[in-house]
Amino acid sequence: MDRLTKQQRSSNMAAIHGKDTKPEMVVRKWLWGHGFRYRLNHPRLPGKPDIVMRKYRTCIFVNGCFWHGHGVAMPPVESLKLKVESSECCKIPKTNRDFWVAKIQRNQERDARVQHELAAMGWHSITIWECELKPKVREKTLESLGFTLNKIFLQDRTIKRYEIPEEEPMMAAEDVSTEYGNKAT
Ligand SMILES: [Zn+2]
Q: Packing angle between helix 22-33 and helix 135-159, nearest 10 degrees?
């Protein structure tokens, strides 16, 4: 059952795919209003995250439920793809079903890869789903986002895992001066 008309769907998709999509604006406004600072679409981080918070070493992705297949489980085997089922907030169109399933699967795989890469670089990823920003649940979602950010901040301060001690000797007798740009002389 395709409940949306063609026109509704295309405007929906434009809204979800655009740069300043409404759900993302909701998150940004809330963050800013609560004193959290960020930058947008950082070009040098994997996946060009929507919102980048350096201080928290955290990237926030605001995902459209349809495009990113919120709650849609993809079977590991290609031949089982026909069994992919829609979820509450991601209704896969009946027409061109294979196309949409493949598209959603690619997006899911990409999301996973990006988060993996970010984690390897010591960055946290937070995904906020469009459906979690509906008026009824919005405040709760955003409050828990703020809570998570503060928790991350505190944890990272305690662990301090990104810094290399300055006096650490090199593994071998390498020429240290080039490595550090002759800082010592
Ligand atoms: Zn959703």
A: 60
Residue 172 belongs to domain with CATH number:
3.40.960.10
Q: Is residue 184 part of a domain?
A: no
Structural domain total, the chain: 1
- Average pLDDT score over residue span 37-45: 86
* Ligand 1 centroid from CA 167, angstroms: 49
Structure confidence by residue, pLDDT tens digits, 55-95: 999 999 999 999 999 999 988 777 666 688 999 999 999 99
CA of 119 to the centre of ligand 1 (A): 23
HSE-CB of 14 using CA atoms within 13 angstroms: 6
Which residue is associated with the tokens 């550090």? 180
The CA 68 to ligand 1 mean position distance, Å, reads: 9
> What's the CA-to-centroid distance between 88 and ligand 1, angstroms?
7
**How much of the chain, in percent, has pLDDT values that exceed 90?**
60
User: In which domain, by residue range, is 50 found?
Assistant: 6-179
Whether residue 10 is predicted with pLDDT greater than 60 in this model: the reply is no
CA 133 to ligand 1 centroid distance, Å: 9
40, β-bridge pairs? 51
CA of 132 to the centre of ligand 1 (A): 7
